[in-house]
Design a protein that fits this description.
mainly beta, single chain, eleven-stranded antiparallel β-sheet, 1 helix, lipopolysaccharide transport protein A fold, disordered C terminus
Length: 169
């Protein structure tokens, strides 16, 4: 199996470290048509038009499963076609928007794993790949292609480009 990997930093998708820090003490909010919590197993299942907000991060999905360890939320697994993710830092001009078929969100480390038809957008820049791992605070991507779904694609739109900035061939 051939794997294509792209590691991207500074893809014009700031993570809002300061904004995230100010929101860390806010509760994680989940809205759903059905909520099922099992204290014995440390799991919760949210179904039907699910919306999750953790500070500046917003996730929408058909279904989200949560796992708890010692009463603290450890992970969220989201499913849907598509799942949508928005990161709305207060200090940047353009929000980050992503779509995928599946998602795993690690709450404490603020990392996202997105799988299946993943697209990341910010402004006019775009990243598409079968699998993307994103550290919200470090602003670091690892994008992976595979034999079944192909290669990754990235289109980076420069902020300001004039004719004087372009190199002549």
């Amino acid at each position: 199996m051939s794997v294509v990997s792209i590691v991207v930093t500074g893809f014009a998708i700031p993570a809002a470290i300061d904004a995230a820090d100010t929101k860390k003490n806010e509760p994680i909010k989940v809205y759903a048509q059905t909520i099922e919590i099992d204290d014995r197993t440390g799991t919760a299942l949210y179904r039907g038009d699910v919306s999750l907000t953790d500070g500046v991060l917003s996730i929408k999905a058909d279904k989200i499963e949560a796992t708890f360890v010692e009463g603290e939320i450890e992970t969220f697994h989201a499913y849907g076609r598509p799942i949508t993710v928005d990161n709305r830092p207060e200090e940047i001009e353009q929000k980050m928007h992503a779509t995928a078929d599946r998602l795993k969100y690690y709450v404490k480390s603020r990392k996202l794993d997105l799988f299946g038809n993943v697209t990341f957008l910010q402004g006019e820049s775009k990243l598409r790949c079968p699998e993307i791992h994103y550290d919200l605070d470090a602003r670091r991507f690892l994008a992976k292609g595979n034999d079944a779904q192909g290669r990754c694609f990235i289109s980076i739109q420069p902020k300001h480009r004039s004719n004087d900035d372009r190199e002549e061939n």
